[in-house]
Amino acid sequence: MKSRYIAAVAGVAIAAVSLSACSSSSDENSGETPEASKTLTIGTTSNNQVPMEAVVAAYKEKTGLDVNVTLADTGQYQTTIRTQLSSGTAPDVFTVWAGSGNPAAIQILQGAGYLADLSDRPWVDEVDPGTAEQLQIDGKTYGLPSKLDAIGAIYNKTTLDGLGLDIPTTYDELLDFCGDVKDAGKVAFALGIQTDWVTQLIPYALTSSLVYGPDPDFGEQLADGSTTFADSNWKSVLDKYLEMNDAGCFQPDPLGTDVNASYDLVNKGDALAVVQVVASYAQIASTAPAGTEYGFFQLPGDDSAEVPLPRGIGVSFAVNAEAQNEQNALDFVDWLATPEATSVWFDAAPGIPALTTTDVTLEGVPLEASDAIAAGLGRPFPDSEWPSAKPQAALFTGVQQLFSGQATVEDVLNSMDEAYQG
Predict the structure, then answer these.
(1) Residue 234 contacts by C-beta under 8 Å, 6 or more apart in sequence?
(2) 11-33: average pLDDT
(3) For residue range 23-58, what is the model confidence (pLDDT) as tens digits?
(4) Distance separating alpha carbons of residues 262 and 215, to the nearest angstrom
(5) Which of 324, 315, 314, 334 is nearest to 90 (CA)?
(6) How far is CA 186 from each of CA 190, 191, 242, 272, rounded to the nearest angstrom?
(7) Which one-letter DSSP state was computed for residue 213?
(8) Number of domain units in the chain
(9) Is 211 within the bounds of a domain?
(10) d(CA 265, CA 207)
(11) Nearest-CA neighbor of 43 among 281, 285, 315?
(12) Band of pLDDT at residue 14, cut at 50, 70 and 90
């Protein structure tokens, strides 16, 4: 199997997992002679469960903290973390995203002063160039990136081999591919848009070809008012999303399918692939039959020679500015950036590294996505350039309404424009 060494960093239904882990040797921050805290709380998303359990278990061997990890589906997590922060019930360490495009993005959360300044931590200068700035506000760092991420089709190699089909490299080939897979009694792409955040993934993948390919400065033009969603190639993005549905690219009733059910369709061989973030690969593979192998390909949006893909920071970790166990939180985040933690994280959940200090072996899905990025095919996650979470929320709702026949493409784009301006 093809593999490569690369510099790295450590890194749906709600669940709580209590795990024992390590202890900080540093003093807490209140009182003259504080007693060292023996606890730490962490909040993250369900697709991080596998590596987080491995990391916490390894951390226990070092110190003995009592660590409580709370897990939630990405959509639910993003809408509840701010409520927890405002009510003083948020965990000490929690998942955040770069930019301002969702409710758990650093610019949204730090706008309310919820994040601790991590600018003096020892790992700050080791973050991948071009990535570090996305976790900064006014030059101050507020997050440790767990890994880089990309969006594309994660596919079951056994299913593809059984069909004897070639991976599509143009949009016309993609539609033919969907038809050939359907004729064989399967579906090309499992789509679980009952889970709202999944609605964005195919549009984001298509924007790489249709929006940012011809117009790399599209985000700046949105910001200065010289264009809008409705007056841009976003119309082609949503038109082709619907065209893919009409061509049988997805299973019947994607609105009745959640994200976990979409993974099951791929793992059982009923669907060939699922368009997802690379960060979800570990969760997909964790429930698959032993020996299942996966591959990755970019989703073509046009018929040009090269197929770009959305590339950005995956999940990052921040420290609560009002953490109950502040020193433990800082120590844990610092440890996540060490080679030891990197090895544990990436062994449990392979991915694309975001720090420049340690080596991991990339194979399969992460390697194929990393190679595409290294070839210069990466384009931005669209929401990383949006001023708030409102356009993303409008897209979530709009796509679900498109598939239920309650809205037109024009309706969705107008609602995104209103949300962007609001």
Answers:
(1) 203, 207, 210, 211, 413, 416
(2) 37
(3) 333 344 444 334 568 999 999 999 889 999 999 999
(4) 32
(5) 324
(6) 10, 13, 19, 7
(7) T
(8) 2
(9) yes
(10) 26
(11) 315
(12) very low
Quick one: how far is CA 59 from the chain centroid?
A: 24
* pLDDT given at position 360: 80
Intra-chain end-to-end CA distance of the chain, in Å = 49
**What's the angle, vertex CA 57, arms to CA 316 and CA 354, rounded to 5?**
25
Residues 283 and 409 in one domain: yes
Angle (nearest 5°) at CA 164 between 158 and 167: 85
- 227 and 290 in a single domain? The answer is yes
364 part of a folded domain: no
The residues with which 314 forms a beta bridge, in sequence order, are none
Shared domain check, 352 and 385 = no
Same domain? For 308 and 323 the reply is no
User: Which amino acid makes up residue 150?
Assistant: A
326 inside domain: yes
Please check whether residues 95 and 131 belong to one and the same domain.
yes
Residue 216: give its domain's CATH number: 3.40.190.10
Segment 91-100 shows an average pLDDT of 93
pLDDT at 257 over 80: yes
What is the per-residue pLDDT across 259-270, written as a single tens digit (0 to 9) for each?
999 999 999 999
Domain extent, residue 14, equals: 3-147+314-356
pLDDT, position 393: 94
Instruction: Give the mean pLDDT of the chain.
Output: 89
Whole-prediction pTM: 0.81
Quote the DSSP letter at residue 45.
Answer: E
Please state whether beta strands 316-319 and 144-145 pair in parallel, antiparallel, or not at all (unpaired).
antiparallel
- For residues 154 and 112, membership in a common domain is answered with no
What CA–CA distance (Å, rounded) separates 180 from 165? 8
DSSP for residue 146: -
Mean pLDDT over 273-296 rounds to 94
